[in-house]
Hints:
The protein is α/β, with parallel strands linked by helices. About 25% of the residues lie in helices and about 20% in strands. The two termini are about 30 Å apart.
Amino acid sequence: METVHRTTVVIIGAGPAGLATSVCLSKLAIANTILEKENVTCSLWKHRAYDRLRLHLAKQYCNLPFAPPHAASTPTFMSKDHFTAYVESYVSRFQIEPRFDCLVTRAAHGMGKWRVETARGEVYEAEFLVVAAGENGVPFVPEVDGMEGFGGVTLHSSGYRNGEEFKGKDVLVVGCGNSGMEIGLDLCNHGARASIVVRGPFHVVTRGMVHLGMQMLKYVKMKYVDSIVASMASFYYRDLPKYGIHRPALQGPFTHKSTTGKTPVIDVGTVDRIRSGQIQVVPGIERVLKGTNEVEFADGTTRRFHAILFATGYRSSANSWLEDFSYIFNGEGMPKNEMPNHWKGEHGIYCAGYSMMGINGISKDAAAISEDIISQIMKN
Length: 380
């Protein structure tokens, strides 16, 4: 007979969202088990993040539940190493013990229970299931005509650490979000000749503008904060249209983020390199010329590159193993319910870390989920 591990809540994923949810549940004396497919906590940051990555929000907005405030000596914008050390201290402080190397292959609801199966042949049963595997489940690379015949190096940002290996080379960065813009800067700093594909409008702000906006949102409606921050950005970055970068016309940066999930680009030096001509902005890719290193762009121009780096983000992978995903997710593996009720599904399933609101959003999800679960337990 198979061995079944029984608990009250199974949490899938030992990133910040899974860890935060576990702590909130444990504080309410609710038994829970975390299953993590990798061999470490916070694997996205430890295994798939480039070296110069920093949190874009100030440290006061990046506290996990029940943890003490960040030390005064901690940088305002934490580096990858600072943040992973913070997570490790969180795990140690609250004695969290995830079960590592537990790749979930199937999760389904039946007979009032959630049954979770792993690649190791283990089975877990629980009244409640929390999906905390994250919106950044698997790397996403868009289809590009002729890419299979490209003669150079192709790489997703999840495999990029720094630009040292690209010194003296022409590198095309596909994706102009925060990762793409920052990787473009890193490549430039390492002596590469970087070009960044820009296909549509996006907001560009500084960390200081975001920090000011976050402070103001405590007291002022979002539309007024947007007006102020957008005015500052449009003045400071008023010359960007001539480089091919335009901002959305109808929504300010905070409203755009809350309605579309698209984070404004937080400039950490890339714009100055674009202005100086050290980084080129190019339009969308039309195709890769067969059997060459030549890329043709939407404006009809062609250029030769040694490498193409895709900073095109990730996709949720939950729907591949969650049989009853429609209880909480849409077809893209993202919450089907709108905020602020995105975290709760049907039949005892929840999701944490899918709000696109960073660590602050994770903390809110974890608290809401644990409070809802205890209320369900008390009813029964």
